[in-house]
Amino acid sequence: MDGFYIWVGVALLGFMIPVLLRVAKGPTAIDRIVAVNIIGTKAAVLLVVIGAIFGRVEMFVDFALAYALLNFMGSVAAARYFHRARYLGEDAGSEPGGGQS
């Protein structure tokens, strides 16, 4: 059964490779944020698989949940930052309610 878990882990790592290319190339910052979030989600699942290999799933599930929570909070913080940076970067004439007459 350990062989199955090892192959699942290798497959998860293999699925991360195209996403790493999106992080490197990705045309916009939002594409890169989503790609990093996907990698973080796959890493959390990989932690559970590693727990199954070592026979300590309960311990690794705790680690995976903590990591997934940090990954989600980081993605939300980055998205808020880029949303505010885009809004503040626009000129005053294009803001809703504050344009030129």
Describe this protein with a few key phrases.
single chain; 101 residues; mainly alpha; 82% helix; 0% strand
How is this fold's topology laid out?
Blueprint: H1 2-25, H2 29-54, H3 57-89
What's the story with the biggest beta sheet? none
Distance between the termini: 71 Å
Number of helices: 3
Mean pLDDT figure: 86
Strand content bin: under 5%
The portion of residues assigned to helices is over 70%
Form type: elongated
Cα-based radius of gyration, to the nearest Å: 19 Å
Write the H/E string, N to C: HHH
> Based on DSSP secondary structure assignment, what is the total number of beta strands?
0
Give the tally of structural domains.
Answer: 1
**Poorly predicted sequence stretches spanning 5 or more consecutive residues:** none
Structural class by SSE content: mainly alpha
